[in-house]
Amino acid sequence: MSEHILVVDDEVEIADLVALYLRSEGFTVHTCSTAGEALACIDSRELDLAILDVMLPELSGFELCRRIRERHNYPVIMLTARGEEIDQITGLTLGADDYVTKPFRPLELVARVKAQLRRYKRYNTGTESTEEVLTCNGLVINVTTHQCTLDEKPLNLTPTEFAILRILCQNRGRVVSAEELFRQIWQDEYYTKGNNTITVHVRHLREKMGDSFESPRYIKTVWGLGYKIEGTNG
Predict the structure, then answer these.
(1) Spatial contact of 204 and 95, defined as CB atoms under 8 Å apart
(2) What is the pLDDT of residue 15?
(3) pTM of the entire predicted model
(4) How large is the C-alpha radius of gyration of the chain?
(5) Domain range summary for the chain, segments of one domain joined by +
(6) Mean pLDDT, residues 66-73
């Protein structure tokens, strides 16, 4: 069964072009030109990934992303025409997993879609015979089922946030650079945007965990080097 992808862009030509490339790769694509159409699709269909333009009539792509994250964990890729860092940071803070700046090459977008779906499937299939569970100071990460709890309370993480936390816990006590995190998560070349991308995801992760930047219980920033988690099992 092919994955279902939502493409939301008020420029119909762009939405149709993206849909053409995705369908040629075997994906089922649903295109919408307004936020209202997109919300109806989100409510009525089982989606595997959403591509959202930032600038939309009625509601922005940011608001759509926020509403998706209220109920769903599938990957979200934001499209921004301006290329401004504030747009990128806003999208990531609201739970987007990646962003692509217009104008973009359709094949690059398709590659990013495939990378996001691979990672999402890997953490949500739960098909492994033996569960891999990581624990640290009340934090429990079930890598197999993609579930995470903190002090026995569930954490609702996006796939990217979950991946960052998993990598840091698997390397407990060792500093992991932003470049290493980026390469492991996206399996892509590390560009200038990579550091900002990781920084925003880590900040959002800290907020969800109630972790302090100044006196962190979990994720510590090692200036000029990267991030690390210290602690013992349990």
Answers:
(1) yes
(2) 95
(3) 0.61
(4) 18
(5) 4-124, 133-229
(6) 89
- Tell me what the pLDDT averaged over the chain comes to: 84
Tell me which CATH code domain 133-229 carries: 1.10.10.10
Question: How many degrees, rounded to 5, is the angle at CA 29 between CA 104 and CA 62?
Answer: 60
Topology of the domain covering 4-124: Rossmann fold (3.40.50)
Q: How far apart are CA 205 and CA 210, in angstroms?
A: 9
Please tell me if the domain spanning 4-124 has the same topology as the one spanning 133-229: no
